[in-house]
Structure formats: C-alpha cells, structure tokens
Automatic annotation (TrEMBL), chains A, B:
Annotated protein name in UniProt: Myo-inositol-1(Or 4)-monophosphatase
Keywords assigned: Hydrolase, Magnesium, Metal-binding
PROSITE patterns: IMP_1
Amino-acid positions noted as binding Mg(2+) 1 in the UniProt annotation, renumbered to this chain: E72, I92, D212
Gene3D superfamilies, per database record: 3.40.190.80, Fructose-1,6-Bisphosphatase, subunit A, domain 1 (3.30.540.10)
Molecular functions (GO terms): inositol monophosphate 1-phosphatase activity; metal ion binding
Source organism of the structure: Agrilactobacillus composti DSM 18527 = JCM 14202
Gene Ontology biological-process entries: inositol metabolic process; signal transduction
Entry cofactors: Mg(2+)
SUPFAM superfamilies registered for this protein in UniProt: Carbohydrate phosphatase (SSF56655)
Record bears the keyword RNA-binding: no
Matches recorded under InterPro entries: Inositol_monoP_metal-BS, Inositol_monophosphatase-like
Length: 261, 261
C-alpha cells in the first residue's frame, strides 16, 4: 500500500477536508447547540461534533476506500489492529471550549500506515491556523516551516497540563508545574500540541485517547519532541494513557519524577 | 475635580495611549528582550515593561498633571491614599506570556476618583481587542457593547485560576475547580478579566496587586459581576489580596467554601 500513497497529496487532502469542515463549524458557532454528556458531566458532545465527524469520515472513505477510521464519535470502524492505512479523527477537540469559549478548539486528523505516523493535521478553527506535517514532509504552521523547538529544561518554560491532573496532583503534576515557569490549562489537547510544536510550551501532560494525540504525535516526533506515556514508554495507538509530550530535557525530568515512587 | 472630568473623553484618551503603546510593543515583540526577575524566578520584568510604563505615565502627566499614578514598575508616584484622580497602570500584564508565548498579555489602565472607579481599559495586545468602560459608560469590546453575563452557578461554567493557587490548593481552589466545568490557566489577570466580562468564564481567582485588578474591577462591577477578596470583603486599592471575581452565584459559592473552615 505504501507505494500507492502520495504523502504530499494525502496531507493536502486532509487539509482540504479539515478547512472545509472548519468553515462549516464557524458558520454555526453561535447557533443553539444540542449538548450531551458522555463519560462525565464535563465530557461533552454536540450535534456539531457528530455532523463534523460524519462529514470527515465520508470524505476519507471516498478518497481512501480501503482505509480504516478511528473516530471519537463512533462513525468510523471498529479497529483492533494497525495494519494498513488508519485515519484517527477528532472532529472537535476541546468541546467544552467550543461550547463555552467559542474558541480554543481544534479539528484533527492523523494518518498512520502500519502503525507509523505519515501525516498529522491540527486546525485551530477560530484562529484559522493549520498545523500539518510528518516525517517525510516537515512541520508547518500554514505555509511557514516550524523549526525544531529548543531543547529547554522544565524550569525554563511553560508546562501545559489538564485541569484534573493538576487539581488531583496525579503523577507528581504539582511538583512538575512547580519546577516549571508556570502551568497553562487551555482545555484542548490539539491546541496544547500546537503550543509545544511552536516552542511556546516546553511540554504537555494529559490523559488522552488515540484521536487526541494521533495528529500531534506525528508532528511532534518530526520536530524531535518526545511523545510517550508518563513513564516514558511508547504509546499504543489503540488505548488511552496519561500522555507526556516534551522537549528531550523536559520529558526526561518529568519521567524522572515518576521514578521516585 | 469631578465636574471637570469628561468621562467619555477620559476613556477615549486612555484608549489612545494604550493603543499607541500596543503598536510599539507589537513592533518589538520578537526583539531580544532584557528579562529580569523580581519577587521570584517566575515574576519577570523586561525593558519593554519599563519603557511602556514610562511612556504611559508621561501621557497621563501631560493630560492630567494633578492626577497621581500607581504604576507596576515604579515610574508613578508613592500613593498612600485615594483622594482625587488616581491612575493605576500595568504596562505589560502577563510578562511571562509576553516573553514565552508572544501573546495573551495585556496593557491596562484604571482611573479612579476618590477611590471610585471611573474608567477601566484592558487591551489584549496581540488579539488587538480593547475592552473598556465604566459605570457611566457601559462596557465595550471595541465598539460592541457587552451584555451583563448570565448569573451562572460555579457548576455551569469555566473557572479561571492562577497556577500557584491551584497547584498548592490555596483557599479550596481544588474543590472550587472540581465543582466547575473546568479550570483554565491563562497567565494574565487582564486576559482572565476579559474572559469573565464576556461570560466565557464564570469567575477568576488569583493573588493580585491593585494594578492587576483596577481596570478589570471597574468594568466587572459595571456588568453586575462581584469583585472582592476571597472571603467576600471589599478590596483595598492600595494592597494585594487573593481576588475573586465572579457572577453573583459563582462568587457566593466560592466564598461559602472559605466559610467551612
């Protein structure tokens, strides 16, 4: 299958699909939403999440009929292995922000071949920026190539965290934040990934599902950042974990905190 | 003095000064900065903070020579009482963000007469939005009047907090965040105030100095929000406190948490 995939074309197609979906989401940003809860009262899904995933899944199936799709809202396939071409789709990452802030949410797609990341695309919908790339492409913010972030220590940069991990001090997050230049909580894994890709944050820690990190992981690793579980082990693309992304130094320092237990 | 002040003119003048200062800051956003620490390693000041305050203080003195000025970086006056016209100036609120993020920082001025807020102005420099207003003016985002935010409960909205208060669970912040729709940590009091003014966050809690809250307090109170210390007591414009801003309901719920002690 590898020979038949033009990765530059694939990246362009994913960007076409996401940009079109983003226009549609923005057009309905101030409509009354149908908001439902999922695993807990702060885990939301709206009619826009569902429609956007349906639309993106339709586009992927038309262009790559043999590919399988892992979608947050369940319009994809039941995927139990990573053979062949697999797309990970998050139609609205940061649904709470979509509902409350009307900004700071993302549409994300990651494309993997036999478990290896080919292309990741994250669109910050309201800011209008598309972050995209992969190991054979480089990483870009719109048309601008992003340089590798400086390999900063934990102490020399901001650390993105999820609210629950800091609030409950899970896995030494209070210590990690205390050693950093400060915590930031944005409420969207996709937007946090874009901050780390740009060197605005040194790292980010959150409990994530594969569709939350698939796109960001491809780009982050292309830029020399490390993306593992909080103990430094490789991630599975088929299960949820506490995910740590960071510069080499920040990553090592946060993993070391876990080893003191 | 009151009769001689045209409040609409005063608001316009403050906006002129801040918008001009913002242009200058943006022009130097990617220059090498001279960064120094103040009270601790994450309390920063740069040459741009100092130059911007000098410039704003000069403009205020030219237009209102009898007024007194409280400035974060010390170019104002030694002010020990609130008689007459007093300007509170924060040249760069969110200096860490200015240095690391190159966004999410604000220029703020609050004008008070005999301790009563007349005009508050907060400019989100990089987004280019000016929030301004006062009790006799209403509150505006650029030219758009902001409505009073809905009186939502803590459980029904996002809660802005400062990193250290959540990390160290000061004053039941972990409980408050746990009862909310989620924490957000932005790293700038000014930007947090603009979120609460717009109803994007239900409330915000942080340890603040008068220049951090002077502008926001005028606007928040004009919109029916409550701005007090964390125990619900009135703020002094001459000292630092843990400040709580919130909708009536959110404010009452966070104050109630303190009373359980």
């Amino acid at each position: 299958m590898s020979e038949s995939i033009n990765i530059w074309q694939l990246a362009s197609e994913i960007k076409f699909w996401i940009a079109a979906a983003a226009e549609n989401v923005k057009a309905h940003l101030h409509d009354d939403l149908q908001v439902e809860t999922k695993s807990n009262r702060n885990d939301l899904v709206t009619n826009v999440d569902k429609l956007t995933e349906k639309h993106l899944v339709g586009e992927i199936r038309r262009a790559y009929p043999k590919a399988r799709i892992v979608g947050e809202e369940g319009f994809g396939d039941q995927v139990d292995d990573l053979a062949g071409l697999v797309f990970f789709v998050d139609p609205i990452d940061g649904t709470m922000n979509f509902v409350k802030e009307k900004e700071n949410f993302a549409i994300m797609i990651g494309a993997y071949l036999d478990g290896i990341g080919l292309v990741g695309v994250i669109m910050d919908v309201v800011a209008g920026n598309i972050f995209w790339g992969g190991p054979e492409l480089g990483v870009y913010k719109n048309e601008l190539a992003l340089p590798k972030p400086q390999n900063l220590n934990l102490a020399d940069g901001l650390l993105g965290v999820s609210g629950p991990l800091l609030r409950k001090d899970v896995r030494h997050m209070a210590t990690a934040v205390g050693q950093s230049s400060g915590a930031r909580i944005i409420g969207s894994a996709g937007i946090e990934f874009t901050k780390v890709l740009q060197g605005i944050e040194n790292g980010y820690v959150s409990h994530l599902m594969p569709w939350d990190f698939a796109a960001g992981k491809v780009m982050a690793e292309t830029l020399g950042l490390l993306v593992t579980d909080i103990d430094g082990n490789p991630l599975s693309m088929l299960s949820s974990k506490i995910v740590l992304i960071g510069t080499e130094r920040t990553h090592a320092q946060i993993v070391a905190l876990q080893q003191q237990d």
